[in-house]
Amino acid sequence: MSKILKSNNFQKNDEIKWECASPGVERQVFGYDDRVMLVKVKFEKGAIGSIHEHPHTQVSYVESGVFELTIGGEKQLLKTGDGFYVPPNTLHGSVCLEAGVLIDVFSPHREDFL
Questions:
Q1: C-alpha to C-alpha distance for 55 and 110, rounded to whole angstroms
Q2: Can you tell me the distance from the alpha carbon of 49 to that of 52, in angstroms, rounded to the nearest whole number?
Q3: What are 58-81's pLDDT values in tens digits?
Q4: Which residues, including other chains, have CB under 8 Å from residue 113's CB and lie 6 or more apart?
């Protein structure tokens, strides 16, 4: 019987290591199993989340800051309290206009983040 991949049941912010995702961008991986993953991503002003795509569904919440988001060729300015949805295999990226934090949920989990 194979073991199910999963995080601890509880995660504490001050116990999760920040990882460098790209220049000016750091992330913390919170809860996950093989079907879903929660990630906190911190951006410095001017940092870029390069245009990319992945097979995962992504839903994100702007916890703080201001971001110019591009999803499937459409650009929108998003600020604290806004959110966005990225369908699987859709080109998307961001430019951080005011330092901030995104809360990302992926389904299934991002193996490349573990």
A1: 9
A2: 8
A3: 999 999 999 999 999 999 999 999
A4: 27, 29, 37, 39
Domain architecture of the chain: domains with CATH: 19-113 (2.60.120.10)
Q: Where are the beta strands (DSSP E) in the chain?
A: 19-22, 25-32, 37-43, 48-52, 57-71, 74-79, 83-86, 92-107
Neighbouring CB atoms inside 10 A of 30's CB total 19
Residues 68, 82: contact at Cβ < 8 Å? no
Q: Is 112 helix (H, G, I), strand (E, B) or coil?
A: helix
Question: Torsion angle of alpha carbons 7, 84, 26, 15, nearest 10°?
Answer: -30
Q: Give 68: exposed, middle or buried? Use CB within 10 Å, 0-12, 13-18, 19+.
A: middle
